[in-house]
Sequence to fold (245 residues):
Amino acid sequence: MAYKSPGKGYADVANHFRALIKSGELAPGDALPSVAEIRDQFDVAAKTVSRALGVLKGEGLVTSRGSLGTVVAKSPLVITGADRLDRMARNGLRYAPGETSSGHKVMRRSVHDADVCRALDLEPGDEAVIRIRVFRQDGRPTSVGVSVYPPHTVSEVPELADDARMTRQFDALYTERTGREVVKGQRTAHARQASQDELDALEIDAPPHTAVAVLVTTVVFHDDEHALGYWEDVYAPGAHVPISS
Fold:
């Protein structure tokens, strides 16, 4: 694997390896190059390398492992659905090492959620296709992914309504069939109380009437005419989610 990067500062070196870990190209347990190798490849001083590795250790992404040197920490990050798209575009990896998904559901439902209706320009009660899946790391549920697609998106990508896992991402299929670019909007995050369905999916056994806070990220996809899809990720308490600067 090539580790060469044009960056010269410790932040550039740290960002390079952070990106490889986030994309799944460096898996938990994989060793990073030695300090001497990183010095040569980035043309930086040993102090710069040490500082970069210190940043990654502080973020919980890597750890020191004796004679093995610095290795990627186990299950360091839970990425968003939008980041998963970026990862697939970069290296074709749908899942990171140790990551799987379960509980796949596809349904047609009337949409009444005000935020979803506003994002997709739907009237309350309009029908949309909703896809749900639970992402797991080493068998443990880490997040629930929900995607909602209005009728005009489903008409171009009818596979979205099939009760089966998609073999290709909807944005690539949409662009291929319409010639229109799919643009990812601003990702936002907020905290709220988890629903019982979300607690069940995340296998959280909370006492009745107990409020459990979860982090939620959302993003809307568009072309030059329509909103095409609304994605929401709900993370288990304690999940470490990378937030783009």
Summary: The first strand starts at residue 62 and ends at 64.
